[in-house]
């Protein structure tokens, strides 16, 4: 949608990304394409940041959230210039060494905004060999969510011990990962097949 649209979703306008996603989800419910108890959000990497942000902002709007290799500890990661992508990403997110950037990033960083409240069903994935979003980032986010959330909804944390940022290589391993994700989504919205009762 052009350079202006791109620029309006980064740096000191990053909150537009999350607000737009929430607006679209609300419109889908308003137009009755779905309902909040049947709506699942899914994103990976920077899209995983989006998942964490909207889960904090509007947990009531989604039945489930799937965050794949999510970039969720924005401030700590962007403060560590030794990580492979940090310095070049300052132009995307901002540099938290600058007070005004820090204050803005603090508004949306998923890890820093976990609260004691009810969250949707959640599936969070990571890969041990991920060179872009280190495995400890989603791990500590999940730990914080588990310590603060007030609901009894499932919160699964799945670690791929062999794959990288894009998950497993190989067609069948990739299909298994996709099937796992879809099974979680279908179970969350109550559409998963149930075994027949034993006579």
Characterise the protein shown here.
- Helix content is about 45%, strand content about 10%.
- With about 200 residues, the chain is of the alpha/beta class.
- The protein has a single domain, classed as Rossmann fold (3-Layer(aba) Sandwich).
- The protein has a 4-stranded parallel β-sheet, with helices on both faces.
- The mean pLDDT is about 90.
Amount of beta strand:
5-15%
* Low confidence ranges: none
CATH architecture: 3-Layer(aba) Sandwich
Write the CATH homologous superfamily.
Answer: Alpha/Beta hydrolase fold, catalytic domain
The main sheet orders its strands as: 1-2-3-4
Major beta sheet, specifics? Answer: 4 strands, parallel
Number of helices: 8
Question: What Rg is obtained from the alpha carbons, in whole angstroms?
Answer: 17 Å
Number of domains: 1
CATH class: Alpha Beta
Shape: globular
Q: Using DSSP, what is the number of strands?
A: 4
Q: Could you state the order of secondary-structure elements as H and E? A: HHEHEHHHEHEH
Helix content: 40-55%
Structural class: alpha/beta
**Span of the ends, CA to CA:** 58 Å
Q: What is the average of the pLDDT values? A: 91
The CATH topology turns out to be: Rossmann fold
